[in-house]
Amino acid sequence: ICAAIAKEHGGTLLVESEPGRGASFILRLPASAAGEAAESMAPTPRHLRALLIDDEPQVLRFMERALAQSGWKVCASSEPEKALALLGAEDFDLVVSDFHMPGLDGAGLYRKAIAARPKLGKRFLLVTAQRYAEEVRPFSSAEGVPVLIKPFDLIEFDRVVRSLVGGSS
Question: What average pLDDT score do residues 126-155 get?
Answer without folding.
Answer: 91
